[in-house]
Design goal:
The structure holds two protein chains of two kinds.
Chain A (H helix, E strand, L loop, with lengths): L3 E4 L2 E4 L4 E8 L5 E7 L6 E7 L2 E5 L6 E7 L2 E7 L7 E8 L9 E2 L3 E5 L1
Chain B lengths: L3 E3 L4 E4 L4 E7 L6 E7 L5 E7 L4 E3 L2 E6 L4 E6 L8 E8 L6 E2 L3 E6 L1
Parallel strand pairs in B: 2-11
Antiparallel strand pairs in B: 1-3, 3-8, 4-5, 4-9, 6-7, 7-8, 9-10, 9-11
Classes of the chains: A mainly beta, B mainly beta.
Chain lengths: 114, 109
């Protein structure tokens, strides 16, 4: 199933590096999301975009910077991360942002910060 | 209090067993509820929505109790392929999903 794709699947980076995560959805959806999943913790919503406009930023540190150039693509730019930022980063999309819309997740990028 | 709390698990059950998971939520204004399933090292996928009147999908039954603010998932006749982590999801009135930490289920032969 390739509805939502993410690259890279695995990333190891030093604290001084700059890298970007990419997400692409092929479902014609209008809303896209970034989540962080740490071991034994709930998924944490980071950013929400609806029709390319950022509608939510859940107190995420500025070392994470999202970009949504169009409704099919979503990026997460990373710089000067900390070891505690190591986690699985999941992208998701839904038809629209609303109560009854199923979210479809990508396979995630497993990030390790050394 | 956490927004969404689930049974800590893990649940280890034999094939054919019936198993139930509970989930409580803190925001009484929550309007939509779901169960997602996440296999090991995979992404979450929607298992089923939870409706006020309760709903069933094959071996899976979901129920909602608004007064007590909890949701349940019942799995009958467990299969090996049911082994996964089950995520309780609640949408409060601001339209974004809130996830529980998940309950891990292992079904053994």
């Amino acid at each position: 199933e390739t509805g939502v794709t993410q690259t890279p699947r695995h990333l190891v980076m030093g604290m001084t590096n700059k890298k970007s995560l990419k997400c692409e959805q092929h479902l014609g959806h209008n809303a896209m999301y970034w989540y962080k999943q740490s071991a034994k913790k709930p998924l944490e919503l980071m950013f929400v975009y609806n029709f390319k406009e950022q509608t939510e930023n859940n107190s995420v540190p500025s070392r994470f910077s999202p970009e949504c150039p169009n409704s099919s693509h979503l990026f997460l730019h990373l710089h000067t991360l900390q070891p505690e930022d190591s986690a699985l980063y999941l992208c998701a999309s839904s038809q629209d942002r609303g109560l009854d819309y199923e979210q479809y997740f990508g396979p995630g990028t497993r990030l390790t910060v050394t | 209090r956490k927004e969404v709390e689930q049974d800590p698990g893990p649940f280890n059950v034999p094939e054919g067993a019936t198993v139930a998971f509970n989930c409580t939520y803190s925001n009484s204004a929550s309007q939509s509820f779901f169960w997602y399933r996440q296999d090991c090292r995979k992404e979450p996928k929607l298992l089923m929505s939870v409706y006020s009147s309760g709903n069933e999908d094959g071996r899976f039954t979901a129920q909602l109790n608004r007064a007590s603010q909890y949701i349940s998932l019942l799995i009958r006749d467990s299969k090996l392929s049911d082994s996964a982590t089950y995520l309780c999801v609640v949408i409060p009135n601001n339209n974004d999903m809130r996830f529980g930490a998940g309950t891990r289920l292992t079904v053994k032969p």
